[in-house]
Structure formats: C-alpha cells, structure tokens
Amino acid sequence: MTRLWRGGGMKLAAVLAMTSVILALCGFHIYKLVVESLQPCEMTYMYPSYTVVVIATSTRSSPVQSKKNLSSVTIHRITAAVKELGGTKYRLWRYTGDDPGRRRGSGLVLPVLFIPGNNGSHEMARSLASETTRRFSRLGMQILDPVELVWYMLDLEGELSAFDGRILEAQVKFALAAMKHLAAAHNITIADSGSSNNAIGAQAWDKAPGERRRRLHQHPGLVVVGHSMGGVVAADALARAAEDPELGPSIAALLVTLGAPHARPPVPGDPSLQSFYARAAGRPRPVLPLLSIAGGVADYQVATELTNPEGLTPQGMWRWLALPNLPGGWCPSDHNSLVWCNQLMVRLGQAMVDLAQ
Question: Model-level pTM?
C-alpha cells in the first residue's frame, strides 16, 4: 500500500509540475500578446539601400591622397584596418538610402557607426538612418555649412552574442578595427595639447565672399549607436579605444544605446559571458557623453533596470531614459521595435542631426 501511495504521489507531482510549466508558458504568451496589442509604435518607412565597404579601395580613395601627407599613426591605422577587417567573416556596410530632396553638405561629414545586437542585422540601422536623412534634407538652406551624418553598419552574421562572451570579444575586436578604418577615412585625429602632428584631420575652407575664413582644427569624432548586445559591444570597444594610442578617448563624440543590458547579462549563458562582463566592469571608462534608452514595460527581453549605464562614464556624462518618458516618444516599445518605432526614431534622428550642426 505504501509503495502504491509513493508511486502515485510521484506521478501526481510530475503531473502538477508539468501543468505548472504549461500554465507559465501560456501566461507568458498571453502577456506577450497583450503587451504587443497595446503597443502603439508606428512603423518607419524608407527606401533603404546599402553598399559594402571594400576596405582597401575605400582607404585608397580617402580624402588624403598621398602617403607623404599622412602621419605614421594614420598609416598604421590603414594597415591595421585592412588586415583586421579583411581577415574576418564580419563586414562593414554603408547606408546609401537617399531622400530625393536631400541637399548634400559641403562641410564636415560626421560618421555614425551602428552595431547590431543578438541575432541582429546591419539593416536594423535603416530606420534611424532614414530619419536623420529626412531631417538633414529639411534643414534646406537654414544652415550655410551643414554637417552631414553618414551611416556605417557592422554585419555580425546574426550571431547569438547574448549567450557567449567569446562572440562578444570577437565583435569588440571587429568594432575596433572598423573604428580604425573610419578614423583614417574621415581624418579623425588624436586630441592632444596642440601638437601640430595631430593636425592631419584639420579642414579649412572659404565661406561666401565677404565672410571670414573658418578652420576646423579637430574632428569631433564618431557617433556610435548600439542596439541590445550591440550597445554592450560598443561601450567596451570605446573603453578599449580610449587606451589605444592609435585611437584615443577622442575617437567618439557620443554613444547611444537602445535596450542594451549594461548592468548584467539578460539571461544566463556560457561562463565566458560572465567573464566578459567582469573584465568590462574593471576597465577604465572614457569621458564620453552617453544616452541609454530602454523600451519600458513592453520590452520583456531586456528589463529597464538592466539598461542602467551608471559606471560606463563619469557622473553627469550619461542620461538614462525609458519609454515613454522620452520627450515626444510617448509609447513603450518592445525590444526589436526600438530600432524602428517611429515615435522614437523621429525624435532621436532630429536630435542627432541638430546636435551635429
């Protein structure tokens, strides 16, 4: 009798456990459907097009035409970028989608580097890139020498970077190589106390007759945008770049992350994932303006508290917002919608272009 009771009790426990799992999965599915049905995010539309960046060719056609005009640092950047970018399965793309009414500027070009996240694609940059293009075209003749944003995107093969620190490490190295290439292609120089050796990126031009000559002595640096784990990759790459004598802390002017789990991994993964976060936390951080945006209650993949950027840059240099608390971004967004939610894209794109001016 006791044996029968024990056997029946074990079966009952197994049935209850299975029922609990099924109910939990059903509850999560219902919650997901309800949240998605309440999300009023509007789609962003555009006519996207992309071109792959052929490193050797694009470097040869950079604004600096002769090696005798290059500093040794710039030459080394070109060599390192060609070697590192050419020897990997990852690729660098440039967004070439264009608004027919767009007026191209004759002044400074500000490169923007987009880094996708877990299972992400370089094409996820198209919504924000298109909104910056539209904003730039709307400026019209309001600004005499407009600063144009040119978008580059990393193609990371849709890897599952949220579960393996070794993948994150490889992506950080590729991001650094891409930064070296962009630094050489756009003449982004290392800021110092005024050495003439770092004036390679200086640009000078004459304005309209009767107006005085203006000189730009220092390129402001890259703008880096990272979605999900791409934001984690971006933050660590910029921290390493600050210690790299070829790049330095002035390589970037701004870091924007969308739904990036800076505080800790969103899910348990390989031990290498915890090791990556631990090494990143122990690394000195650059003095860099940082904006971290969370999707809010609609993002059930990365909780808002995980996107806290505290510690990534000194106090007062970062801003942490969760939708719908962003001015103009009046609705929450699920994790993947953060890269196309029109309410967010319009406001963020406008801010990026206006700040660039």
Answer: 0.78
